[in-house]
């Protein structure tokens, strides 16, 4: 049987859902509890796109925190889950893309640096949660982004070869991970000042204006045009 023409693999935070402000607040509170009082949004943006545990491990080293990263993650998840209950929003353009892809019969998955509990909490009850039952957390694979493990695991669970997968990502580490997995990538930068980072130019399709300029119909058309199993495209 011929493999599926294409599959979509979505990053979650900052791509599918508007969760980064909540993650920043949870991160800020956890660090404040460890005596770090000057953790700004600007500093937080440097950690966007890598796994939550990896980010906390880096912060632990940076701020010389004695508490193990795993304990920091458990506390951050607790705070984050309290913050998002009933407050998380799916970006409208992304909801539209999920609905269009579902109607077209394209397999879909979510591959995120968040814990599985946080992924499920963000999607449960959302407009697209029921359409995205295949979910992979960085805690389920050996390495988080920018390593390709989480995307490779998503492709395996979908039963679709990596070269037929298209990743939708908002951050440079995620784009790097998608390309390392041999997948095409649609980039929708969540931090607009980072849109000129070289890695975004390597994405097959990029919306440098972020979610406000995202076009779900254009993405689906682009995916269909390239659903031939060829090597990842680098045109934009």
Overview of the structural elements:
This is HAD family phosphatase. It holds the Pfam family Hydrolase. InterPro entries: HAD-like_sf, HAD-SF_hydro_IA, HAD_sf, PGP-like_dom2. The protein has a 6-stranded parallel β-sheet, with helices on both faces. Helix 1 (20-33) packs across helix 4 (69-84) and helix 4 (69-84) runs parallel beside helix 6 (116-123). It is 42% helix and 10% strand. It is of the alpha/beta class. Strand 5, helix 9 (198-201) and strand 6 (205-206) form a beta-alpha-beta unit.
Topology:
Elements: E1 7-10, H1 20-33, H2 41-44, H3 52-62, H4 69-84, H5 92-103, E2 108-112, H6 116-123, E3 135-137, H7 149-158, E4 165-169, H8 172-180, E5 184-187, H9 198-201, E6 205-206, H10 216-225
Parallel strand pairs: 1-2, 1-4, 2-3, 4-5, 5-6
Helix pairs in contact: 1-4, 3-4, 4-6, 5-10
Protein name: HAD family phosphatase
InterPro entries: HAD-like_sf (IPR036412), HAD-SF_hydro_IA (IPR006439), HAD_sf (IPR023214), PGP-like_dom2 (IPR023198)
Organism: Streptomyces cheonanensis
Biggest sheet: strand arrangement: 3-2-1-4-5-6
**Main sheet overview:** 6 strands, parallel
Structural class determined from secondary elements: alpha/beta
Q: How many DSSP E strands?
A: 6
Mean pLDDT: 91
- Strand content bin: 5-15%
Distance between the termini: 31 Å
Task: Extract low-pLDDT stretches.
Answer: 229-236
User: What is the global morphology?
Assistant: globular
Give the SSE string: EHHHHHEHEHEHEHEH
InterPro entries: HAD-like_sf (IPR036412), HAD-SF_hydro_IA (IPR006439), HAD_sf (IPR023214), PGP-like_dom2 (IPR023198)
Protein name: HAD family phosphatase
Pfam family, one: Hydrolase
Organism: Streptomyces cheonanensis
